[in-house]
Write the structure tokens for this entry.
Amino acid sequence: MRSTPNDARAATLLPLQPRDYLILLALADGPLHGHGLLRAVEAEAGGVLFDPANLYRLLRKLERDALVSEVRGTARQEHQRRRQYALTALGRAVLVRESARLAALADAARARRLVGGRSGVR
Amino acid sequence: MFLRVLYRALMLAYPRDFRREHGSDAVRLFLEACQADHRTRGTVGVLARVGRALVDVPTRGFAERAASRRHARWPVALLSDLGHDVRYGLRALRRSPTFTIIAILTMTIGIALSTAMFTTFNAVALRGWPVEHAGTLVLIAPESASPQGPSGFGLDDLERFRRSQTLTTVAGSRRAFNVNVALEPGGRGEGGFGGHVTPEFVDATGVRLILGRNFRSDEDREGASEPVVIISYLLWQRLFAGSADVIGRTVYIGKTAHTIIGVAREGWRGQQPYRDDVWLPLHALRTYQPQDTLFLRDAGRCCLEIVGRLAPGESRARAAAELTTLIPPGPDGHRHRVRVSGTSMLDRTSGYVWTAALTLVVVATALVLLLTGANIAHLQLARAMARAREIRTRIALGAGRGRVVRQLIGEAMLLTVVAGVLAMAVVYALLDTLMRISEMELRDAWTPDAAVYGYCIGVSLAMSVTFSLLPALRSARIGLAHGAGQTVTAPRLRFNLALLTTQIALSVSLLTGAVLLHRVFVHAIRGDAGFPLDGLTVISYEPAAVSPDQPDAARAIRRSVEHALAGPSLPPIGLLDSVPFSTVFSARVQPEGGDPNVSYSVDVAPMSASAFDVFGIPFVRGRPHADGDGVSEAVLNESAARRIFPGQPAIGRVLVYAKRPYTVVGVTRDVYFASRGTIRPTLHVPAGTARRFPSFVLRADGRAASDQVGAIISRVDPRARVTVRTISDTIADRLRDERMGAQAAWAGGLLALALAMFGVFGVFAYVVEERRREIGIRVALGAEKRDVLNALFRPARVAVVGGLGFGLILSLSLGPILDSMGMSLFGHSPFDPVAFAIVGMILSVAAFVATIIPARRALGVDPSVMLKEDA
């Protein structure tokens, strides 16, 4: 992995809170508006409910840390009034590093036979 | 709507800048998520979402406030402490789920009851007309201090008021009753009330028309060329299914064709508390009631209702003063004063009604609060005692007393918040049910508004204070020096037992009424009316294509329908002009040759000879009358025969009904025919006398036969409107009041019972908690468990048995009470052993459930642990 200024900053933001990680992960495929994000995060969390106000609170925090930025939908889109959120370059870097960290942890757990093979089933 | 308000309220926990930035997004997202949950998981999904929000939003919100200490001021610090208290309270409440659930349920019932009462009061009395800027819409009426004063204003006064400077618009209106709006002349239609209004009415009220236009002034004058009408949104939906091309179409009001020129917006139902469906020009009234006092020159001032809009910056008092000067003084030189009021019911009435209504609301609220508060006080005391140890520990570890008290208050507030939210949901559900079973279309007026929410919050706060303050103060007195939890002194147990007895008595009498009404209702629709009711079905039809000036066509249609029905595969069919228990009408008859000034009122039920067989109405004397249009034979029931020809044989005598003579050929036994409650003198004449298209009656199991009849009618006249109804359904409709009464009594009785049982639970739990030490010692000394329980629960058992007794005595007064409400028991005695037995059983089960948990706790006392705890 090439080292960029983002990587250096990303290192200071690790480790991520689980909920922050879920949000960044949900945005990895592209920008989402609030409802889509809520659905995606709840699905990732295995059906645990996520409070909308809390979602916006976390998004605001992530925005302050410059991990996420607000984008306006193009005018042709149906939900043009809605705010959409997207990963910033820094956000993507943090997500990549955090994922690597978690993967390493998962490997460690696997080595101790705490979880099954690749599938990760208990 | 409710969820939106709830979430918005919860969001108040977040700092303002957050709300400004994300508040509406979060609310919208929450509602969308609720909808999605509802689609995927149903109500449970929504409840889970709401539950998560109830916990998450306040805690995270206060955390967020605490985090943004940049703007920190003292309330923030306090609120963040409160956040801790809330979280601590949540943990404490989770440790004792039974207490939590019962406390929440008790408070929910209390808050819901009083909020429902207030909602009613609000809808009936406090709310103005549902218009924009309702504050400047005023009603103008004479201030009639003396009984000889004018009863209203006339057309001349309306003209004078139009010169007013304080009002921008003035409009006159007059109510119209029994308006029947149909698509065909004289056809069965819709509607009930309407208003005759001047064109300014639409401007003054500010009601937008969603289609079409307002009346023109040339349409509101004497001899206007074409009758025009504006219809309500609801009527538009019902008659035209919301069709867009309704403007210009014709409806019949009575027999007069009216052209529709406008449709009012949804939700405007006219002048509360009526439900208007049509608006006609004021002068159209001349067509319907040429003799209306409004148009009589010397009738004095009558009877225009006048509404106006205040000009900007003007007050009602100044408008009243100005309008008073516009009216010329009477012959005696006395000038009548004008009263200008708002549109709500209370505004329109004078001072003492206000006072009385407010007193009623305050007393009712206080009563509910007292009962609920008393029930909860015990619960809370028992808990405070059980927690004395925890509180002592916290004080020993250095918690300030204020902090402990605040924390207990915090817990109480937490409970009341949850209870308040649940109560609002209950109120919505109650209103929904009410609207559905009463088929009222007054949803707008009844939907809770800011006043109702304010009231609910106020009651919840009052509840949380009564609920928490006393135990909190007591708990704070728990000192380190004290040994056991004995510092919490016994409250006035006897007073509370008396309260409990009253509650139980109340719920017993309500439940008895419910069971009684229920039994009466079932008997009325299933039982015997003098002839068996089961399976009787009436099929009515209304041909589409026949107008009143085509008697031959009508006769042809009728004949071919009757011919087609004579097929062999059907059960016997009778013909009826009026449906029993529904459209039987009364008329006056005279015996021929008698005193011309004497006539008798009888119910008239024209039907064919075969119908007597179908119903199974037996003849006492004589035979059924012959069928046919020109036949002049009639049948009386025993009551009619006795009434009209007392002491003489009725057969062979002649009666004059509708200016035609009928010879009496038979007398039937008395049966219930027009009403389920009373037997009235009844006259039967041949079918077809009163209606051109008689209905058919047959007796059959299931719908096969009646569907076959419907199909035959449709074959003869494909556009005919056919309705099929069983007699039992018809009776059920007529008994709607009784059925609603039974449902209300069930709901009220079960709620009251639940409250009472929560009270019993609280007292028992308290007694057990208070006497733990004694129980421990007794058990250690070898007392039988049964004896221990007996000693503990004697006072509460007295309350239950006493309540049952008092309740049964109370329910003896049900007969007259129901009677005064216009409900009949149809000869059932209010002293109904079956009803009493059922209620007694319900109460026993409830009392058992309420005592089982405290009893188990009492028996679970381990002497060794107990004595060590106190050491």
Q: What stands out?
A: The first strand of chain B starts at residue 137 and ends at 142. The radius of gyration of chain B is 35 Å.
